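Can't paste images in this forum, so I'm doing it all in text. The chain is below; anyone willing to post the predicted structure tokens underneath?
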Amino acid sequence: MMNQKFFIFHYLILFILFQISIIRIKTKPIFGILSLPEPIDDNTTLLNESIDGAYINWLESAGAEIVPIHIWYSQQELKELLDQINGVLLQGSFRLLNFTSKWEINARFIFNYTIENRLPIFGICFGFRILNIFMSKNNSCMIRMRNHGNHKIEFIENKTRKSTLFSLFKEKDFVSFENNETTVFIHRFGITPEMFYSEKNLVDNYTLTSFSYDLDGVKFIDSIENDNLHIYGTQFHPEKTPYLRMKKYKRNHDDDSLRRSQLLAIKVVDFGRNYLPKKVIANRNQFKKKYHMISTFSENDCKYLYDKNLNMFYFSKEFYQ
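Text version of the structure:
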């Protein structure tokens, strides 16, 4: 009799776990993208904002759904949203950091929340540097650089091949990155290896997996990760390879480059897919309306202006009043 009850109990547990896994597979993970001020260096009104459509396209291509993290949110509103989503993306930008501005204060709040709750966060370019600056607690942890175009990547041999972020890569992908100028860089600042290794918080919390060089030959760090805290980032732009529309910036559009971009998108979205938010979304349609979910595939409850030439989404607080 005891054996029968034991068997039934374990069968029920396995059945429940199986059903949960099915629900998680069928339900698309939701990523929040932190919007940027318009104009980009606005530190006062923070009523208008933008998201580069390349980030939306890139995450959607791997099965994610997107909500804008509005720059005018209070920290309580930020927490309510972060409690319900599966991941955060910090986008690239030419913004000059102002750590007394509400944008930077909210960005730091989001960063701290992701650490406390292990919510996956991925930073690209400017977002990558934000991850390093906030972790180091050193606001001057970067130098000006000159870097536009495609460059090679120098991987750290004993770390990158074991990297979680690059785990879908085959050896030929690493070799191609190392020998061909296939990645897109668009940035004015960077973090040198010397800066990285001089910051104890960075060394203790991040695994550095690659480097690259700017147009003047200055070496800078290019990718980091922390599997325990679910923090990942790249200085290069994986989303630009398939989705960059600005003609003044070169990018490779060959099959292998597109495939590697897609592999990184799949991995980043999988980080979110494997994360269980603090709160379950009871009604997804209500959530979409409340948080202005963006979709490039279907009708939107999100109000925005779209520039198809630049693939940019623009929002204003006035749209929602």
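The two ends are 64 Å apart (CA to CA). The first strand starts at residue 30 and ends at 34.
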